[in-house]
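Note to self: keep these together.
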Amino acid sequence: MKCWKLLKEILEWDEGYSEILIEAAGHITTSNLISELRSNLDTEKYRVSEIVNEMQIAADARQKSMPFFLISFFSLTMSIFIIYSSYKVISLDRLPIIGTFRSIGATKKAVTRILLLESLFYGCMGGVIGIPVGILVLKAILQGMGNSLAQGIEIPVIISLPGVFLSFAVAVIVSLLSAWLPVRRASRLPIKDVVLGTVEERHIPRPLIVGMGIVLFAVSALLPHFASGNMLYLAGGFSLLGLIAATILVIPIFTSIVSVGLERFYGAIAGNEGRIAARNMKDNNNTTQNITLLFISISAIIAISVVGNFVTTYISDVFHGAELQGFADGRMEPEFVEQVEKMEGIDKVLPAYVFENTIKAGGTTLSRLEGTDNLEWYSSMLALNYTNNSFLEQAAASFQRKERSVILSEGCLERTGFSIGDEIILSNGTERGSYIIVGSFKSRATNVEAVIPAFYAVSDFGAAVYGFLAYTAADPDAIMVQIRALFGETSNWSRTVEEFNSDALATVGAFLEPMHTMTYFILLLATVGVINNLLINYMQKRRTIAMYKSVGLSNRQNRKMTLIEGFSCGLIGAVIAIFVSYMEIQTIFLVAAPKISMLPELDLWTFFAAGGLGIFITLLGSIVPIIKSRNMKLVEEIKFE
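Structure:
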């Protein structure tokens, strides 16, 4: 209490309060409480508004979380592929055991059940270990974000039981589904083939695979163009999965075709070692699996980087394309605006009447309606993007003639079901007027849902003071200092565009920094998978390598062959990833287009850098088989059966 009195003395406050916080009772909604207060208070003296806009918070959260959903999507995709590949190898290694079980009476269902139970155990263990580790990582991430945010903001770690159960269920389901195909195939093999070791891989005709891949790729690329509304999100998800699945189908054939061309090319520049390295890639399952892993990881890094950079730009530069250089949001008398117009260096001043959650269109409450005298200035100041190019000219003429007209945001049209040309009733509870919808727009610079002529904001709804002001000036900072001085102790939110962008960039950067860090996790998954495949490839070829060495192949030549093969694998994966990631980015922003008003600016450096990382991973992984082949004992390897 002493501190409160001391603060009042320092700030020279009179008796009373400048702001009161009110909590609605349990049976009353916030919107009803606001309406009741506004109807009982003098709106010229008191301003009633909600503390936070839940809808806006949810929308901002969706924008910030999009890159994290992409990370989850690509991480799950890579995990499924790695588990599938591993179980394919495990199933082949277990064929003698499976044959023994089957020969002593075990049924196909029993063998399938045993192998799936093993997969279930792995999934449960992964969930039990992964969830605590994930919580620790989340705490570290949020702590780092808290340190990056201004004013010592702390972000609490909220772990819900449904979230824990969902994560555990995903771990189990991914493990089971990824293992099901190779397990099912291994358990259904004839006993005679398993015991005699005559099991052969069933080959699907290549023309059929190519045809399936091309059709699936075309359908996945075109589907989002023909979807709308809520179906657009479903079509987008199918498109992303379809693009990846179609590419996986085509990679083996594409690799074999490219290896034929590389065999001639490397033969000319690297001799027989290059020719053999290219030939080793043809019809090599391990090579195609490496290329697939690289393609998924590189395309994930590209897509996440592009989306992350776009989200940073989108949120931290909401006034992109807007003409205003500063704005003030607060109670402003007409005399206030006149003083701003007389300031030295001022160029344009655009005041607007503001109605927040007080005007209803039909039975729908508009979150924000503004009234302006100059719609052309208003549109350029706040970068309104009209749905149709003719709407601005049509609406501006209607406003100038002081007709009862209104323009609505595209989101408002979708929410209310109105259409251009409709006649609607706008009401504040006591007064009402009939307005014609003459246009629609979307804008990142304002959350306004409706704009009407200022004349009717005054005559129909009794507006007496302005609630918003935008300006352009030779020195926006100097004007802002004077505007803040004019407000004095009056509550307001006044910022230059540069100040707003700087604050938003710092906040958004802190939120998205962990996302950029998580791309290293994707690279780690890819590296582990690539090294695993290279080791398997070495184990399958070690007898061949030993025979080459016995007839004169040197360690230098073997190293050269391995590096050429690794480089080629990385290059093919990078080229495929760059092409497919471009298609994925088009799909992502096609799905997001109804909610945003700008397209991403693609940087070629992002694509090339990610491709270079893929090549580096394969070259790094090639070190392991090089070291092993260098230390191999020729006699033992040649005798190996």
